[in-house]
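Researcher: Structure prediction, please.
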Amino acid sequence: MSVYTEVQAFFDRYFQREGLDLSSCERPKIVVAVSGGPDSLTLLHLLSLGGLYPTKCLVVAHLDHTLRPESAQDARFVEEIAQKWGLKYIQDRIDVWAIAKAKGESIEEAGRNARYRFLSTVAEKVGAPLVATGHNAEDQAETLVMHFLRGAGLGGLRGMLPAGPMPGSSEQTLIRPLLTVRRPMIEAYCHENDL
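Model: Predicted structure follows.
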């Protein structure tokens, strides 16, 4: 069995389990958060080229956190992918370092909060009820360890949900279709599909 077939099977089971409608749509249905890394490229590839949704159902969203010198290159790369695959593309650029300093937050926290605000704003703008991120099994394990180290009780040790309310919004649902897929499989998928 090819890696494509294995990852596609995880993906298909996710959408069936969550009861998400895979039929065609007349307007954007999913805002896909794409950083340009293997996880988000796999997610975008499966949603668009995997044939789950027509291109008019998807919007690619990229937020440049300006934390690395090559972040502008990442934004251009994601834009090129979106154009090549015939997908609508929306991006923004923020200074996460300045936000973290002003709010007294860690870089990670400021970045995560800014990213979710951006994705929610994009979803509201295009009328999409779903926001998809490329979180994988290793991200889930990392989240559980962080919660444990912070002293979270049993309720805090559940980790990320495969689907749930978008942070800060009651209008959209955040979905994580790759949450049970391991990172080595995602990397193999990218290699096999020349991503």
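Model: The longest strand covers residues 58-64.
Researcher: Thanks, that helps.
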